[in-house]
Fold:
Amino acid sequence: MKIFLRNLTIISTTVAFTIFWQPVKGETIGNRVKSVSVNVATGNSSQSIPKIELSPGYGMNISFIRNGEIVEKVWLDNPTFASLDVDGCLSTEGRECDKEGATVIHLRRINPLKVPQLHNSNTSLLTVIAKGKAGRKLYLFQVDMSDKKPNYHTIEITPDINTFPETTDFYNIKNSNTLQSLSRGLKIINNQGLISSESRLWSRIRTLLIKRRMGESINSAARKSGISMRLINRLIELGSSSLVK
Structure:
């Protein structure tokens, strides 16, 4: 019975840790979805703009739902090998939509077309204008042909970590005991095999702890270390609950 309860606790912790962990930028996550930050997709990062590889028989989605934006305008410079569709209305040039605005773009590979006015090419630039609470943004994507089976079916545009304001509150972060709870939470998931001390995530959490001990605010340290608020809260909860027997 004790073994069963221990295994159940580990399983529950694993599920919770998975839910509250926010993937790093550009990382493929569950259900074959790739997360791409606004900073990368707008070309304002040292990283290359996102690449979309279209394979025969497979489509690709670009979702702006999580970022809360509406697609206003789309340009596909080379339409000879791809078709494009959206899930709603594109409200441009002052035209009013009679249905909900578009939030998802769908690209699909087609048999190459011969268009005399266009140069032969197996690549294209996709430009998207989207509008949200922060205003209008211009997104860029490189679209290529590929013969390989895709590793994911959706690119999800996500907010940048550094867009969270300094006043953002973390759950139960009120005193120095929180730092101890965070350290204990990290030790707990390490002992349970949920994170390796050689992983990038471990390194980022350790960097956060160092910055916090040096007097930097938890909000600033989290942003600079690339750690999600949900993960910090979860580690604090685990570390705090370990003191309650």
Remarks:
- Confidence is low (pLDDT under 50) at residues 1-31, 162-175.
- DSSP finds six helices and ten strands in the chain.
